[in-house]
Amino acid sequence: MRRTLTIGALGILSAGLLGTVLAANAAPAQAPDGPRPMQVAHAGDGERMDGRRRLSAEDIQAFTDAHIAALHAGLKLTPDQEKLWPPVEDAIRSLAKLTRDQHEARRGRDRDPLAETAPEAIRARGDALTARGDALRKLADASQPLYATLDQAQKQRAALLSRPMGGPRGPHPGMHRHHHDD
């Protein structure tokens, strides 16, 4: 029996696109003696510890929109498949919003690490992971009907388009591993 290792290429998209966008706001990945990362020039909401500007909420939303549009365009959906796209897009956007909100909440807690106890921090992390798991399950449920109608070429494009872009460290380890059907 053939098995596809795509829990939802569309689910991976959400993790990948948000990881890519939010990685731009993360700590620098290279050694201090390495090249400085490119700076984002805009009127953002402050500077990071490495002196670069943070991406604004508007910037992050623009990148999210671009990634969703790229996936949608790349799938080249038929008219019947187009009818199944809106719930997928809604689930991706909901996951993106949850991820942004969690990132902001974490950033707020990081400003004063002594503001919460270790058990409170563990509970907050558990709650965040549970919420993310719920959102991913909703995305999997929303994408299943569409994914079932995709032909093999569309499934391949979905898998390629939904891979994480990597952020400042480049492609994620194992990103280029090819999962073949058994």
From TrEMBL:
<feature type="region of interest" description="Disordered">
    <location>
        <begin position="162"/>
        <end position="182"/>
    </location>
</feature>
<feature type="signal peptide">
    <location>
        <begin position="1"/>
        <end position="26"/>
    </location>
</feature>
<keyword id="KW-0732">Signal</keyword>
<feature type="region of interest" description="Disordered">
    <location>
        <begin position="27"/>
        <end position="48"/>
    </location>
</feature>
<protein>
    <submittedName>
        <fullName>LTXXQ motif family protein</fullName>
    </submittedName>
</protein>
<dbReference type="GO" id="GO:0042597">
    <property type="term" value="C:periplasmic space"/>
</dbReference>
<dbReference type="Pfam" id="PF07813">
    <property type="entry name" value="LTXXQ"/>
</dbReference>
<dbReference type="InterPro" id="IPR012899">
    <property type="entry name" value="LTXXQ"/>
</dbReference>
